[in-house]
Write a structure and sequence with these properties.
single chain, 420 residues, alpha/beta, Rossmann fold, 7-stranded mixed sheet, 35% helix, 11% strand
């Protein structure tokens, strides 16, 4: 069977795409408006190209900064790099955008519009700041529909936060109903489920709505994901996800590409690390003494008492925020003694208080690499851009291990269609 082609819309750093590439899908285009995320995708596609060519030494030379990015990209065919389109999508210039895509049809379209407008927290912030509900990001599904109309994929995958199920229009109608009606006019049926990444080998509780649609004449139904579920009950974050990483302090950067220990069984089995990988992005934010004292209190409350810390209940001398009513759980330790952490979100780019390292000896917020591991990005996945950008790319991403399960389900459906 020839490789299944796909386009990734609102691609971010390529977490969803990573799962599809891992299952032998062939990318046609990635479209993303953030320039640093686009650079990350280009570097990742370059990795996959060099891996197939048996030339990962060249990739590792780039990670070790022995060669420049321009020299690195010069080794990669231009059609691979040009398949990453850095552009914000608008209806008005849709046809011009399509001229940059080297395909008339594709098998699958994947992607999810920015989720902040659908998230419950995002909508609460809009109300607090007096913004109108008519956030233009709410209507990005219409651009998604334009791609369905243009490229006529057999199936599509539309990923978003659970808040998309409760988000409503100004008139009170649910957006999920608008989305379904829109896609039905394009001759697609769709169904959705809320799935948890922790059920698919990711050491993180991350619930996401996965909409899967298909051309009406195919008469399909939503796939059964039970076939690809994996138990993580035997693992913990401390012992299996973070154990091999060098211990560093607040504000420190691990300059070596070497690890502190061999990969754990979980890292090997999940594919997050191999013996040949290099350690990158193990960089910790600087935390001031006030924050570090709060971190110690939060750590003690969780690991000794099993309680989360409420911000307004901190000693007065440690409270520096004027708003003590909203976001009371702004300081939170990663559950190192458990199999799955709380959800990694894009706010990690602003500060790390919601992701305090479970090892009190280090007393800091987690590094970029630790955040990437919680999201199940393999260690050979390199993020381009600043530290803040890397955190943002990670927080916005679909965990690759979760994406791989989605890709397996889609591939099985397409194989069954071909046999008919």
């Amino acid at each position: 069977m020839k490789k299944i082609s796909y386009i990734d819309l609102f691609a971010g750093a390529g977490g969803l795409s990573e799962g599809f590439i891992a299952n032998d899908f062939e990318h046609v285009a990635h479209i993303e408006k953030n320039a640093e995320a686009c650079q990350t995708i280009k570097t990742r596609l370059s990795y996959h190209y060099l891996r197939e060519e048996g030339n990962l030494d060249f990739y590792n030379a780039y990670l070790k900064k022995e060669i420049s990015q321009s020299d690195f990209y010069n080794k990669i065919p231009s059609e691979i790099l040009n398949s990453v389109i850095c552009k914000e999508m608008h209806i008005d210039d849709f046809e011009a955008l399509c001229t940059q895509i080297n395909a008339s049809t594709v098998d699958v379209i994947i992607g999810g519009p920015p989720c902040q407008a659908y998230s419950i927290v995002g909508r609460a912030r809009q109300r607090d700041t007096g913004k109108k509900e008519a956030d233009p990001r709410l209507f990005l599904y219409q651009i998604y529909g334009e791609f369905l109309k243009k490229f006529k994929p057999k199936l599509f995958v539309f990923e978003n936060v659970p808040g998309i199920l409760s988000a409503k229009t100004v008139g009170g109608k649910k957006f999920i109903e608008n989305i379904k009606a829109e896609f039905q006019t394009l001759d697609y049926e769709m169904e959705f489920q809320t799935l948890n990444s922790a059920e698919f080998g990711v050491l993180q509780n991350r619930h996401r709505v996965i909409i899967i649609g298909w051309q009406k004449h195919l008469n399909l139904s939503y796939p059964d994901f039970s076939e690809w579920k994996k138990s993580i009950s035997e693992y913990t974050i401390n012992n299996d996800l973070f154990a091999d990483l060098p211990k560093i302090q607040s504000g420190e950067k691990w300059d070596s590409v070497e690890y502190a220990a061999p990969p754990t069984d979980y890292l090997r089995q999940s594919g997050l690390r191999t013996e040949k990988d290099l350690l990158t992005w193990h960089i910790a934010r600087m935390n001031n003494e006030n924050d570090k004292e709060i971190y110690r209190l939060v750590h003690n409350e969780w690991f000794k008492k099993g309680k989360r810390t409420i911000y307004k209940n901190l000693p007065n001398r440690l409270i520096t925020q004027k708003n003590t009513k909203s976001f009371q759980n702004r300081f939170c330790v990663v559950e190192g003694d458990k199999s799955a952490s709380h959800t990694v979100v894009a706010h990690i780019a602003q500060d790390g208080h919601y992701y305090i390292h479970p090892d009190l000896e280090q007393n800091r917020s987690i590094t970029v690499r630790e955040a990437a591991r919680l999201q199940s990005f393999p260690d050979n996945f390199y993020f381009e851009g600043s530290r803040t950008s890397a955190f943002s790319q990670i927080g916005n991403a679909v965990p690759p291990l979760f994406a791989s399960a989605i890709a397996k389900a889609i591939k099985k459906i397409l194989c069954q269609i071909k046999k008919k």
